[in-house]
Amino acid sequence: MTKRTLCNILATLILSLSLFGAAARADNAFILVQSTTSTQNSGLFDHILPQFTEASGIEVRVVAVGTGQAIRNAANGDGDVLLVHAESAEVAFVADGLGVERFDLMYNDFVIVGPSGDPAAVMGMTNASDALAMIAESGSAFASRGDDSGTHKKERSLWQEAGVDPVVSSGDWYQETGSGMGATLNTASGMGAYALTDRATWIAFENKGDLVIAVEGDDALFNQYGVILVNPQRFEHVKSDEGQAFIDWLLSSDGQNAIGAYQLDGQQLFFPNAK
Amino acid sequence: MDDLSGAFAQAFRLIAGFDPDLLEIVTLSLQVSLSAVIVAGLIGLPAGAAVAVMRFPGRAVVIAVMNAMMGLPPVVAGLAVYLMLSRAGPLGDWGLLYTPSAMVIAQTVLVAPIIAALTRQAIEDLHGDYDEQLRAFGIGRSGMITTLLWEARVGLFTVLLAGFGRAIAEVGAVIMVGGNINHVTRVMTTAIALETSKGALELALGLGIVLLVIVLGVNALAGLLRMGVAGRAHA
Asked: A44, A259 in Cβ contact below 8 A?
């Protein structure tokens, strides 16, 4: 086999490989949405996206990662729409010219879950940062995302409010898993630790083990989701028409109703609040 | 233990139920990993054989690097391919990120060094035995490489299988460059990671069992093929 034929075979192969993914769906219009694990793992997307695709003919491909990573991916231009939950980071994303405009989409809340034995005696408290201070004082295990996600950003602000720097105890009672919400809940469930989680992921989570909700109902635990079109003036490949159609639908009464209608175990997971 | 028996029940239900979603995921897993092994073989087999046969300055360094690359962490390979294929990266205009092609490229990066390094070793052993004979027949370097590759084909089959095992089992690279998008880039390992993160441990383990069964099937098929090849070689 000569070098030339080898090169030809290689080139043909790579070309045909790059086609097999595209060919299957080339006729469908699709957009890429960078989003969070909570929206995917809770089943929300499986519920609402088929409705949008039905109405518009546009397929929605979701990459579900932590909010921090989703924002970084979108900032590289690897996505048409950003749907996350960290308002200040979203505002900064738009201010930097990476996104067109931010819209409030829906909300739910965070809860602190912990082992039913409640070693820190925080069960039933309604002030999240007070509860965290007690967890720190008692040295009870706490599993943190530690991944710069929306939930992790919220958790850090609550620690700050509590006047505790948990990172100095990292590896002791404070465990930074550096992974997604589900993986962190698996850790908490396995070691009997407290953890901060969004309620949607919690309700959908199937490996709760001994964990129960310990703290809820604090205004500080409010969890707002926003949606942003990635700026086509910054990245010319952004599918702005299709992306905007998706955002318009989410904010319309159809989209808002679809979000509000999604239930798991008889509980509503997300509350639409587009203005 | 409940989890484990539940997992086997799940695996059985998944296979017996011919779940179309599962079939799609399995098909894509095989497509991606077999493609990666083919491309990596086309690169790794001749490269490994060439290094085995040729003598050049810095050869020891090349061999050391090739061997070390066998330990390349999948996440690092994924990150490197992500940075190349991202819209902000040098190959961003190709628009390949979050497609099966990106996953093939990432797995090729992982598998090619394994195939090259193991091929180098296999061919070098053989080269020692055949060198004088081949020279006596007046066969040149490139002829020597193809002859030795052909003579070593039975052993090299196992090398390709080792590469396939690495490709089909890894999750770090494909989840990063594929994005685990439902119906587009979701493969067995990323589906397992997703179900684990949902806390659906039984289903995750069930999928793991299905994956093992598929890998076993591929190996059995390869074993039959190899017997055919070996049989003819000794005929």
From this structure: yes
